């Protein structure tokens, strides 16, 4: 209840109208709650992990690998989902997943899902991929068979860090 919240997030997650005036949830949040929002964006999970360790952020929007690292290093605290009025409306298949729940404790709140698209150059890749095994191992980590490897696991979920 200090009247301010500091958020560390992927680009595009904390929209205040500065990128696109039509996309601004921060201003209404600030007016409604009288809580000032400050934010910083990051480009990789490694960068976010190092920034999160400073203790300067109340909320970290984290991918699954970052959440796991923060929990393991005691940089994240459990989220009391009972205090989140809309938590019951989150799709059940997004809750209690390995990327935001550890030892039965929630460290993140899933906020959505979407399609992961696999694109390739048919002139250079033959035969055509028929599954994600061309890019990811069965456990979700990047495959050594992929030409360019993602830097994070595919799942995302915001993680809260209280200071």
Which class best fits the helix and strand makeup?
alpha/beta
Strand percent estimate: 15-25%
pLDDT below 50 for ≥5 consecutive residues: which ranges?
Answer: 147-163
> In what order do the strands lie side by side in the largest sheet?
2-1-3-6
User: How many alpha or pi helices?
Assistant: 3
Largest sheet: 4 strands, mixed
Along the chain, the helix and strand elements come as EHEHEHEEE
Question: Mean pLDDT across all residues, rounded?
Answer: 83
Structural shape: globular
Alpha-carbon distance between the two ends: 12 Å
Give the total of beta strands: 6
User: How big is the Rg?
Assistant: 18 Å
Helix content: 10-25%
What keywords describe this structure?
alpha/beta; four-stranded mixed sheet; two-stranded antiparallel ribbon; 3 helices
Task: Tell me what you see in this structure.
The chain is globular, with a radius of gyration of 18 Å. With 163 residues, it is α/β, with parallel strands linked by helices. It is built from three helices and six strands; from the N terminus they run E-H-E-H-E-H-E-E-E. Helix 2 (45-52) runs parallel beside helix 3.
């Amino acid at each position: 209840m200090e009247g301010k919240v500091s958020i560390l997030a992927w680009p595009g997650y904390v929209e205040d109208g500065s990128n696109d005036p039509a996309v601004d949830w921060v201003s209404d949040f600030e007016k409604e709650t009288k809580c000032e929002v400050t934010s910083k964006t990051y480009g990789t999970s490694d960068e976010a992990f190092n920034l999160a360790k400073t203790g300067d952020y109340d909320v970290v929007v984290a991918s699954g690998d970052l959440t796991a690292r923060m929990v393991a290093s005691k940089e994240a605290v459990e989220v009391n989902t009972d205090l989140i009025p809309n938590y019951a409306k989150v799709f059940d298949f997004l809750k209690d997943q390995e990327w935001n729940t550890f030892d039965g404790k929630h460290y993140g709140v899933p906020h959505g899902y979407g399609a992961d698209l696999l694109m390739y150059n048919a002139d250079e890749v033959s035969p055509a991929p028929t599954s994600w095994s061309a890019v990811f191992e069965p456990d979700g980590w990047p495959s050594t068979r992929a030409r360019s490897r993602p830097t994070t696991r595919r799942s995302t979920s915001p993680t809260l860090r209280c200071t």
